[in-house]
Each structure stands twice: as C-alpha cells, then as structure tokens.
Amino acid sequence: MAMTNLRDLYVDQLRDLYSAEQQILVALPKMISAATDAELREKFQKHQTETRRHADRLMEIFDDLGETPSGHHCRGMEGLLLEGDEVLQRRGSIPPEVLDAALICASQRVEHYEIAGYGCVRTFAEMLGLDKHAKLLQKTLDEEGHSDHVLTDVAEDRVNREARS
What is the pLDDT of residues 89-140, one digit of tens each? Predict the structure, then answer.
C-alpha cells in the first residue's frame, strides 16, 4: 500500500499493531506455561484476555474505515518475541526465579513497543478527526500502560528479589 498521506500511514500502523497483537496471542500461552510465579502467571493470563480485546478494538476501527488488517507483518514484534523465545529455550538451565524475572523483562519490552505504537496511532486518529478511534486507541494505550506498571510491581515486590539470591 502506498503511503501518500496521514490516513495511509494510520492504516499501515494499525495493520502493524494488529499483526503485533496476533503474534502476542501466539506467544502468551508459552509465557503462561513457563512462568513459575503464580501471580505472574495470573497477570499473563489477564493480559491474554486484554490482548484479544485490543485486537477486537482494532477490528472495529478497520471495519469503520472499510479496511482490512491483512497484508502486513510486524517485524518489530517478531524480533521482540524471538528474544523472549530465546529465554524460554534456556529455561532448563535457568533457575525458576531468574526465568520469571527474564519473562517480565521480555514482556515489558513488548509493552513498551505497543505503548509507542498505540500512542502514535491515537495521535494520528486525533489529527484525522477520528474521535471514536482515538478514544478506542486511548483505552488500549491506558491498558498497555497499566500492564507495564503491574509487571513492574510484580518484579519489584518479589520476583527480582527472589532472582537475586
């Protein structure tokens, strides 16, 4: 798709985010399975539900625009998730507490990538006068920020301390 204006860029970036969300939905079950800390596992499960909602919101926006999410693969998310897979492949040689800390680290990288992407498309929606889209995207952006803070809390309250020993 040629990008000749802000709307074209907006649709392109929405496709990138949709691809990212789909990739995350594939990766999360592996992270849930690998997490040894019960609270962390619970947070990953909650995030899986939120990620489905994020994809649904994006579909609502695509429907409103008369566009489809297909035709784009988010290489940035692919790279972040590959790094997370590298951690998972080493899990037999990593103490469980350290594995949990590494999973949080990988997850927060993903969250920050999403926060950047959703912040951009929300701003594009505002500039394009797409107020309904901007509100939907802000809701997702708020949830992504909350997830990041929750992961920080889990890490700082317990996981990182346990990994230190």
Answer: 998 899 999 999 999 999 999 999 999 999 999 999 999 999 999 999 999 9
How is the chain split into domains, by residue range?
6-164
Q: What is the mean pLDDT of the chain?
A: 95
CATH number assigned to the domain with residue range 6-164, chosen from the 4 options 3.30.70.100, 3.20.20.140, 1.20.1260.10, 1.10.540.10: 1.20.1260.10
Q: DSSP labels for the chain?
A: ----SHHHHHHHHHHHHHHHHHHHHHHHHHHHHH--SHHHHHHHHHHHHHHHHHHHHHHHHHHHHT--S-S---HHHHHHHHHHHHHHHTGGGS-HHHHHHHHHHHHHHHHHHHHHHHHHHHHHHHHTT-HHHHHHHHHHHHHHHHHHHHHHHHIIIIIHHHHH-
pTM of the model: 0.94
Q: Please count the other Cβ atoms lying within 10 Å of the Cβ belonging to residue 33.
A: 11
Average pLDDT over residues 143-151: 96
